[in-house]
Amino acid sequence: MMDAEGTKEKQFEELLNRFANFIRIHVQKYNLYKYGLDPDDVTQVIRIKIWKLLHSEKTIANYPSYIKKIVNSSVIDQLRKIRREEGIFSHEKQVAENELAYSMEMARFRSLEETVGRAVESLIESRRQVVKLYLLNLSIPEIAGYLNWSIDKTRNLLYRGLSDLKKTLKDMDIHCESKR
């Protein structure tokens, strides 16, 4: 006497033998190679779905129609999976390209920052103090208050310091453009 599992296995083998050509023909009509899919892989997915169907105790009245539905849904699932993976790959590639561009831009920025820092350090002490504070976004009145200088003295030293800084950067072949 055959147990329930043996019966399911025998039924499974009979279905696969009975519908093997049917499945093969319906899988081939999609020309899966052009999408990078192996028809054998899709056929394996179909077999798994048929196996699960038999173990679900669901009663099927029309096997050819149901198997055709399984074939179609399996192919569609595999095509969607490829599109999803391509989308993920495309997104990952774009992120990597953006990270590379960002790191290159940051490297250029750091290099420029170091160059400007060296140029600022070459200024005479009083001008260097004012320019450093100005580059930290302090206003002339704030700088004057911080250094206990008059606004006129602070403005004069700042303008002379910025002029010297522009000349030094120009000598280093870095061209400054005014935003004014």
Give an overview of the whole structure.
With 180 residues, this protein is mainly alpha-helical. The protein has 2 domains: 4-82, Orthogonal Bundle (Rna Polymerase Sigma Factor, Chain: A); 122-171. The chain is 78% helix and 0% strand. The protein contains 6 helices and no strands. The chain has helices at residues 4-28, 39-55, 63-121, 125-135, 140-147, 151-171. Helix 2 (39-55) packs across helix 3 (63-121) and helix 4 packs across helix 6. The protein is rod-shaped. The termini are far apart.
Q: Descriptors for this entry?
A:
180 residues; Rna Polymerase Sigma Factor, Chain: A; rod-shaped; 6 helices; mainly alpha
Short description:
This protein has six helices and no strands.
Task: Give the SSE layout.
Layout: H1 4-28, H2 39-55, H3 63-121, H4 125-135, H5 140-147, H6 151-171
Beta-strand percentage? Answer: under 5%
Oligomer: single chain
Whole-angstrom Rg: 37 Å
Which percent range fits the helix content? Answer: over 70%
pLDDT averaged over residues: 86
CATH class of the largest domain, named Mainly Alpha
Label the structural class.
Answer: mainly alpha
- The count of strands amounts to 0
What is CATH's topology name of the largest domain? Rna Polymerase Sigma Factor, Chain: A
Most strands sheet: none
Overall shape: it is: rod-shaped
User: Could you spell the SSE succession in H and E letters?
Assistant: HHHHHH
